[in-house]
Amino acid sequence: MMTSVYLLLSQFVYVHQAHQSQTWKPADAQVVTFKSALAAGAKYDPIDELITKVFLPEFFGRPHIAFQFTVDGITYAGVNYTWTIDPLGPKEEDVRRDNPPGSTLTIYYDPANPKDCVVKTGFGPHFYIVVVGATILFCIGMYIIQKPRELI
């Protein structure tokens, strides 16, 4: 039940960002190390990452890849591949293997705040599977909790 609650809450936190990212501007970025991206000011929430690892199996995570890009002469960094969980999407190892440090990839950034940036915009194709599945798990959990004791 806790996993379903976390899935629902965490996804709704990112839904707004994922929806807005569909209109962001593209830029060429260079893949860098995670440490250098964090040093350059990449937005990264270690608490969210920890909670994701505690409550969700590994295949539900959001892949990360570190990159740097320049907009109007200012260098920005990012580590988010996408905003939402996509259980059938690419795995972090695959993303990093396909984009070694020094390679170039297209990222998308918020023109109003370039610190908000991702490689894949919008919702992953399997986002709704996660939301529907978490809702079903939550309803089953609530039913079990509310079930009269004599029926257990």
Describe the structure.
By secondary structure, this protein is α+β, with helices and mostly antiparallel strands. It has one domain (2-151). The chain contains five helices and five strands, in the order αβααββαββα. A five-stranded antiparallel β-sheet has the order 3-2-1-4-5. A hairpin with a 2-residue loop joins β4 (104-110) and β5 (113-118). α1 (2-21) packs across α3 (46-55) and α1 (2-21) runs antiparallel to α5 (127-146). The radius of gyration is 18 Å and the shape is elongated. The model has no long low-confidence stretch (mean pLDDT 79).
Q: Can you summarize this structure?
A:
It contains five helices and five strands; from the N terminus they run H-E-H-H-E-E-H-E-E-H. With 152 residues, it is α+β, with helices and mostly antiparallel strands.
